[in-house]
Amino acid sequence: MNADGPVVNVHVLFFAKSRELANTPRSKVDLPTEITASDLLELLVSKFGLTPIRDNLILAHNESYIDNLSERILFKEGDELAIIPPLSGG
Amino acid sequence: MMESEVDSEQSRLKREIAELRAALNRKEQCLRELEASVSSDASAEEQVVGNALESPGRAVHTKLTNDDIARYSRQLILPDFGVQGQLKLKNSSVLIVGLGGLGCPAAQYLAAAGCGRLGLIDYDEVERSNFHRQILHSESRCGMSKAESARIALLELNPHCEIHCHSRLLYSQNALHIIRGYDVVLDCSDNVPTRYLLSDACVMLRKPLVSGSALKMDGQLTVYNYGNGPCYRCIYPVPPPPEAVTNCGDGGVLGAVTGTIGAMQALEAIKVIVGLGDVLAGRLLIFDGSSGLFRNIRIRSKRPNCHVCSAQPLITELIDYEMFCGMHATDKDNPLQLLSTDERLSVKDYHAKLQAQPHLLIDVRPTAEFEICQLPEAVNVPLVEILDDSYLKRFGKQLEDKELPIILLCRRGNDSQIAVQHVRNRFPMHSVRDLIGGLHAWTNSVDPSFPIY
Question: Which cysteines bridge via disulfide bonds (chain A)?
Answer without folding.
Answer: none
